[in-house]
Amino acid sequence: MKYIRETIRRAEYRFDTTAARFARRHPCIALFCTFIGVPFFILGAVCVLASAVVCPIAWVNGWM
């Protein structure tokens, strides 16, 4: 369990440092990704997960 936690912690630290380095080198692209890309990603994930729940229910009830 401790090994898994340390592995996750290392991966998180590596991702944070890489993202910070990218934001320092490309501030305009980082702002675009933050304010445009992330909301679209979240909306897409919500749409996919909602469809994964609703479509089987609609199929079972004969609404499709």
Q: What is the β-strand count?
A: 0
Q: What's the story with the biggest beta sheet? A: none
What proportion of the residues form beta strands (DSSP E)?
under 5%
Count up the helices: 2
Taking the alpha carbons of the first and last residues, their distance comes to 45 Å
What is the ordering of alpha helices and beta strands? HH
The proportion of residues forming helix, as a percent range, comes to over 70%
Which parts are unreliable, with pLDDT below 50 for 5 consecutive residues or more? none
**Rg (C-alpha, Å):** 19 Å
Coarse shape: flat
Mean pLDDT, to the nearest integer, reads 94
Structural class: mainly alpha
Keywords: Membrane, Transmembrane, Transmembrane helix
Written description of the protein model:
The chain crosses the membrane at residues 29-59. Keywords: Membrane, Transmembrane, Transmembrane helix. It is a single chain. The protein is mainly alpha-helical. Helix content is 92%, strand content 0%. It has two helices and no strands. The protein has helices spanning 2-25, 27-61. It is flat and about 50 Å long.
